[in-house]
Amino acid sequence: MESLVVPVLILLAVVAGVMLAMRALGKRKAAHPAATPQPAATSAELARAAAAKLSEDEHRRLYALIAQGQAMAAIKLYYEATGDGLRASRDAVGALAAHPQPYRSTEAAGPEPDEDDDEPQRFPYRYRAIASKGDVTREVSSNMLNDEIYGRIRTLARNGDREAAAMALTRHSDISMKQAREFIELLDD
């Protein structure tokens, strides 16, 4: 009987240690809950704030990297441009990709544009949107497009509403509906 006392005491000590470790881990998880997805409004606000930290050249290069699917390079660019932390840079680039923002200079920051884009405005520059798949490449060039509008068109196409995306593209460019449908078909994200 004496020979069993020591192993039983060791077993009890191990069980008690495991229970204490589990309890401490449970308290730590309760103190630091897992990150929950941000509501869309917060993500859009984050995108606006993130875009405001970028120069015009940085903004253009960042969206070029996002459009090419180079998320890591985009995060690195944002990280180096703003000095924000790595996690904050990752979140900002994700928000900018989900909610495309046009470049706004800090001197000319005016009222927010309407979300309703029924009446396309003309910009002082021509915007080029390029889509390709395999050997087929299509380009749309218009002074009624910008990053924000093109981002909405891409979102419509990604969400499966290709007809609405094609209609929006024709409304903001001088191409036919047939050409717009061909362009939208190439937007394979």
From TrEMBL:
Residues 98-121 are annotated as: Disordered. It comes from the Bacteria. This is 50S ribosomal protein L7/L12. It comes from Arthrobacter nitrophenolicus.
